[in-house]
Amino acid sequence: MCGIVGFTGTQQAAPVLLTGLKRLEYRGYDSAGIAVQHEGKILTEKCSGYLENLNRITDNGKNVPGFCGIGHTRWATHGAPTVTNAHPHVSNDGHFAVVHNGIIENYALLRAELMEKGFVFHSETDTEVVVHLLDLYYTGSLKQAVMKTVARLEGSYALGVVCDEHPGELIAVKSASPLILGVGAGENFFASDVTALIGHTRTVIYLEDGEFASLTPEKITVYDCGGRELQKPLSRVMWNTEAAEKGGYEHFMLKEIMEQPRALKATIEPRVKNGEIVLEGFQLSDEELQGINQIVITACGSAYHAGYVGRYIMEELCRIPVRAELASELRYSNPIINEHTLVIVISQSGETADTIAALKECKARGARTLAIVNVVGSTVAKLADSVLYTWAGPEIAVATTKGYTTQIAILDLLAVYMGHRLGRVEEGRYAALVEGICALPERCQRAIDLNTQAAALAEAFHDKPSLFYIGRNLDYAVCMEASLKLKEISYIHSEAYAAGELKHGTIALIDEEQLVVALACHRPLFEKLISNVKEVKARGAQVLAVAQESERRIFAEADQVLLVPECDALLLPIPEIIPLQLFAYYVAKFNGCDIDKPKNLAKSVTVE
Ligand code: M6R
User: What is the pLDDT of residue 300?
Assistant: First the structure.
């Protein structure tokens, strides 16, 4: 969602801010703005729509002088995406400018109080209260004004502040919204995430909730909420600039689809040593593991779909009841979770608000918690008892691809590892599964190579008004992700349906207009799935099937076929999603959609 950048140094700030905002575009936004200190004043430029507009009015920042400033991309929550509602917001006297990511939950009360005191509000945003509070509390000390302001705020916020009376100084505040400080030489930065920083520095400081920092070109000072100075460690970011660029591909999504063999290798390889799975982040003793009597996997969106795949694999191998729950539901459900529950939380960004809330709820009930996360130092990673990172590298496209498959790879490793430690996966099966997991990067590459016809199939079907994805067991779990992939980037309605359920009502919708994508990779239920294919074909639907490459029977049943390489049944979901990601990508492309930044969507959903 909203993106924040801040820069102070000796080069012109506006171009640096705009480049940083460009790197945060993928988070999703609908307006943007910058504010820069210049000769005792704050200069502000804002636009609705995309950054191109801001680049145009500022001549790529060249028109805005000054060496210290803040920038923002806004994903509208309170008020439409207009120029007035765009950040930065400026105080009535023009002395302060503020950018904000998150939601100030008590803004209505604060707004009424401030209006009574004579402050004039120009926007409909919750953020504007922050800038007026700073103005109210400022008596010469920026630090004191920030502390008094923050003490009045409820909700989640990452804030960037500049004040014209403090040239060269930026303030960064973090509470339940991501914000990272970038340490340069004679210049310093902050940003919502590392992708905006890696072009300038790979040395960062991770702020904790409740901390704030003062940045000047020479120095960064971090404080706790009581204003006491803290000594914070410097961390090194492993991601590089190339990883956050398109590298010749037309879209980040296509690049990230193609990167999956490499991302899987990076995720799997360090965790298999001499044929044994080694999970350094997994901290349960044998006794604690034996004491686990249920596993709950919770997440949102595609991460939940990865969890849904994991549910089948874990239950099969560990013989412990496993359920997958949407984090947005779990957090309000009074769940039966206790110290005998292992809760696995999955999140690419590690900043998804509902996932964080569900994790906190489960921890409060005494559960053992394990996070599967891509972003190092993110909130989910910090909150969970143990973390297993997916080493997928930065994922920029809003529609996740390598994030999802690397999450499943970790779940595969975890299920085999736990099942073995529990004595429920015997040695021969263990060795075969470990070998199968190690082969996944190559299987994934084969899935890419096998499906060069995905673009042609997308061209043939791109004007379908609605699609059904059907499957059973693990195929059904993959349907959920395939359907979301198509919906979110092509805006075509689709539904994932358990194939056996069709006849209980939904088959009434099937006619010659429908394309049914039938996932037929799960061999034990192949015949059953074929019966469902016959049912929909009898009602006129066209069928695009997805099957393992040696499964020749499928050609007699389906109109078109996408192929998946041979693989252990439990490990199939990773290669199986690849042709469906490609299909969704090309359908969106034929429909002229904005693939990397689909309408209404944000990469990291940091509000409820
Ligand atoms: O960062 P997270 O993995 O927690 O994000 C969860 C969902 O918001 C995310 O997977 C979303 O569904 C994607 N746009 C799907 O492609």
Answer: 97
DSSP 8-state class, residue 349: S
Q: Where are the beta strands (DSSP E) in 229-385?
A: 229-230, 235-236, 272-273, 276-277, 294-299, 322-326, 341-347, 368-373
Q: Residue 253, Cβ neighbours under 10 Å: how many? A: 28
CB of 327 sitting under 6 A from ligand 1? no
Q: Residue 162 is encoded by which pair of tokens? A: 């500049």
Assigned token pair, 341:
């529950």
- Cα separation of 535 and 529, whole Å? 10
pLDDT for residue 386 = 94
Q: State whether the beta carbon of 400 lies less than 6 angstroms from ligand 1.
A: yes
**pLDDT tens figures, 152-172:** 999 989 999 999 999 999 999
Whether residue 506 has pLDDT greater than 90: no
Nearest CA to ligand 1 atom 7: 301
Tens digits of per-residue pLDDT, 178-225?
Answer: 899 999 999 999 999 888 998 899 999 999 999 999 999 999 999 999
Q: What pLDDT was estimated at residue 77? A: 80
As separate numbers, helices (DSSP H) first and strands (DSSP E) second, the chain gives 20, 27
pTM confidence score: 0.83
Residue 155, C-beta contacts closer than 8 angstroms, at least 6 positions apart: 102, 103, 104, 105, 106, 107, 126, 176
Q: With a 6 A CB cut-off, is 399 part of the ligand 1 pocket? A: yes
Cβ–ligand 1 distance for 406 under 6 Å, the answer: no
Q: What is the greatest pairwise CA distance in the chain?
A: 80
Instruction: Work out the burial of residue 163: count CB atoms within 10 Å of its CB; fewer than 13 is exposed, 13-18 middle, 19 or more buried.
Output: buried
Q: How far is the CA of 303 from the centre of ligand 1 (A)?
A: 6
**CA Rg, the chain, in Å?**
25
Strands 211-215 and 203-206, sheet pairing: unpaired
Mean pLDDT of 317-343: 95
Alpha helices in 138-235 (DSSP H): 142-151
- Side by side, the strands of the sheet bearing 466-471 are 493-498, 466-471, 515-519, 542-548, 560-564
Residue 308 Cα to ligand 1 midpoint, Å, equals 14
Atom 9 of ligand 1 has which residue's CA nearest to it?
301
Q: What is the 3-state secondary structure (H, E, C) of 178-238?
A: CCEEEECCCCEEEECCHHHCCCCCCEEEECCCCEEEEECCCCEEEECCCCCEECCCCEECC
Task: Name the E strands within 107-169.
Answer: 155-163
pLDDT band per the 50, 70, 90 thresholds, residue 598: confident
Residue 240 has pLDDT above 80, yes or no: no
301-318 vs 402-421: helix axis angle to the nearest 10?
A: 20
| Alpha carbon of 458 to ligand 1 centroid (Å) | 24
349 Cα nearest atom in ligand 1:
1
The CA angle 84-86-92, to the nearest 5 degrees, is 55
- Ligand 1 site, residue 380, Cβ cutoff 6 A: no
At residue 597, does pLDDT exceed 90?
no
Active-site residue 2, yes or no?
A: yes
Helix (H) or strand (E) holding 570: none
